[in-house]
Amino acid sequence: PMLEPERREAFGRVVFLVFQLAGGVVRLALTQDEAESRRTIDDYRSIIHTQLRLFL
Question: For the whole model, what pTM was predicted?
Answer without folding.
Answer: 0.85
